[in-house]
């Protein structure tokens, strides 16, 4: 139930209760005034007749006195008058009155009682004591309470109708005012809160009233302004952070290119010597006829081979905008190992790919190649003696690390396993920290694993490592099977 409706109902019930109490008190006061008026009228009538009755009784006898009462009864029908003896004189018995009333009357004071034994609504009986010689009598004035009870019923009915009418009017007025002063402004504030929750921070609300709701609206408008300013600031800071991160990753790629330069130069030495030798044979006339054509074909093949090597190096070093697309992982691994094979050969390492040809992942090929390059280069550097570095891939079921969180599910795992010297246990917790390296001076910047860790996290995965000193290390890259 809405707040305005609750307030309206509560105020209406309170108003009904107050009006009911007030009307009840008013009815009681009206009844008390009516009873007092009746008793006063009885007392006035009793004392008016008492003098005449007493004088007629003494001067003309009992019959004449009682005749006066009969004449009085004929002229009005609302009350009934009769003479009663209070002390049982003249052989008459005293009326059955309460003892307290009898004591009051015998003391010479007026008294009254309500006779509930009579039919109908009861009878009010008032007594005015009169002394006849030495005997005590009284004029009894009886009046039916039917009219009074009817008056009470009419008063209660009128009060109930008035209370209902006022309650309905108050309810309608309260509903209208509640909707105008509370319901409508609250709805506007709720809509503003929903729009802010949806990210529409440019929205505002303006209330044409001067109360607490207007203060709340001002506060919410101010909150939206602050959130908008904070969002713009965060957007700028995020853009700067991403630009810095991209510069850092590109710097890492250029560092890798520099390390590959010597291997590439060595790789290009053989085809260059072939080109040089064949060209000299052609220019010196050492070969003639079909041999010239064969030498030209060999020169062309070696030139294409050198172009392919340089193209691979340039592709790796080129700055590209991040873009994820379905990628054949086997081909990506093959290209990476081809690029690094001169460096591996120089160190006596053999690179082997055991990745199935059908494995397709939605990744950024440049970023994943940078990750593989860093891991393979680290493996090559760790192998101080001839050995084999293997790259494997396949589906597995695993739970993300505690700092990432999540339930156990299906992943694609890429393993880069070397036969190097391994990592000391005390160094394992720090290998992904920026600028942490265990390599010799000049061999590493300490950014490769840190950058790779960030790139894999951007893909929704993580890197795990297990290592045994003296037997090698295995870095495992976990990636979502359907892409991030």
From TrEMBL:
Entries under SUPFAM superfamilies matching the protein: ATPase domain of HSP90 chaperone/DNA topoisomerase II/histidine kinase (SSF55874), HAMP domain-like (SSF158472), Homodimeric domain of signal transducing histidine kinase (SSF47384)
EC numbers on record: 2.7.13.3
Catalytic activity: ATP + protein L-histidine = ADP + protein N-phospho-L-histidine
Listed GO CC annotations: membrane
Alphabetical list of SMART domains matching this protein: HAMP, HATPase_c, HisKA
Alphabetical UniProt keywords: Kinase, Membrane, Phosphoprotein, Transferase, Transmembrane, Transmembrane helix
Superkingdom as given in the UniProt entry: Bacteria
Gene3D superfamilies: 1.10.287.130, 6.10.340.10, Histidine kinase-like ATPase, C-terminal domain (3.30.565.10)
Pfam assignment, any one: HisKA
InterPro entries: HAMP_dom (IPR003660), HATPase_C_sf (IPR036890), HATPase_dom (IPR003594), His_kinase_dom (IPR005467), HisK_dim/P_dom (IPR003661), HisK_dim/P_sf (IPR036097), Sig_transdc_His_kin-like_C (IPR004358)
Domain HAMP: 180-232
Main subcellular location of this protein, as a coarse class: membrane
Enzyme class label: transferase
Residues covered by the Histidine kinase domain: 263-483
Designated name of the protein: histidine kinase
Source species of the chain: Stigmatella aurantiaca (strain DW4/3-1)
């Amino acid at each position: 139930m809405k707040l305005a409706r609750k307030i309206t109902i509560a105020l209406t019930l309170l108003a009904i209760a107050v009006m009911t109490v007030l009307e009840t008190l008013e009815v009681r006061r009206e009844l008390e005034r009516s009873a007092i008026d009746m008793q006063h009228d009885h007392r006035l009538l009793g004392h008016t007749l008492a003098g005449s009755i007493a004088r007629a009784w003494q001067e003309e006898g009992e019959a004449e006195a009682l005749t006066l009462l009969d004449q009085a009864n004929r002229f009005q029908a609302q009350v009934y008058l009769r003479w009663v003896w209070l002390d049982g004189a003249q052989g008459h018995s005293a009326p059955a009155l309460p003892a307290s009333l009898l004591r009051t009357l015998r003391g010479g004071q007026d008294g009254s009682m309500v006779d509930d034994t009579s039919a109908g609504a009861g009878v009010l009986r008032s007594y005015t004591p009169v002394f006849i010689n030495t005997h005590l009598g009284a004029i009894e004035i009886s009046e039916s309470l039917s009219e009074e009870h009817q008056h009470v019923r009419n008063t209660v009915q009128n009060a109930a109708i008035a209370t209902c009418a006022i309650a309905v009017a108050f309810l309608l007025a309260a509903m209208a005012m509640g909707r105008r002063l509370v319901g409508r402004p609250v709805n506007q504030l709720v809509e503003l809160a929903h729009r802010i929750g949806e990210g529409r921070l440019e929205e505002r609300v303006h209330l044409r009233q001067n109360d607490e709701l207007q203060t709340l609206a001002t506060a919410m408008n101010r909150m939206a302004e602050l959130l908008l300013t904070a969002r713009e600031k965060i957007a700028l800071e995020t853009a700067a952070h991403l630009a810095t991160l991209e510069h850092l990753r590109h710097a890492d790629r250029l560092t890798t290119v520099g390390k590959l330069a010597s291997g590439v130069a060595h790789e290009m030495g053989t085809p260059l010597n072939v080109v040089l030798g064949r060209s000299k044979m052609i220019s010196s006339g050492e070969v003639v006829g079909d041999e010239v054509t064969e030498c030209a074909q060999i020169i062309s093949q070696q030139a294409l081979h050198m172009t392919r090597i340089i193209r691979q190096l340039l592709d790796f070093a080129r700055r590209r905008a991040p873009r994820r697309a379905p990628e054949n992982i086997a081909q990506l691994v093959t290209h990476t190992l081809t690029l690094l094979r001169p460096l591996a050969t120089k160190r006596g390492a053999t690179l082997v790919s055991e990745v199935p040809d059908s494995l397709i992942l939605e990744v950024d090929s440049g970023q994943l190649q940078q990750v593989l390059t860093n891991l393979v280069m680290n493996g090559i550097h760790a192998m101080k003696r001839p050995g084999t570095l293997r790259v494997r891939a396949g589906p597995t079921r695993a739970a993300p690390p505690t700092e990432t969180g999540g339930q156990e599910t299906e992943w694609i795992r890429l393993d880069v396993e070397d036969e190097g010297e391994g990592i000391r246990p005390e160094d394992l917790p720090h290998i992904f920290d920026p600028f942490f390296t265990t390599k010799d001076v000049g061999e590493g910047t300490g950014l490769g694993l840190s950058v790779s860790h960030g790139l894999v996290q951007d893909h929704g995965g993580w890197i795990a490592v297990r290592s045994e000193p003296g037997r090698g290390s295995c870095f495992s890259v976990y990636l979502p099977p359907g892409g991030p």
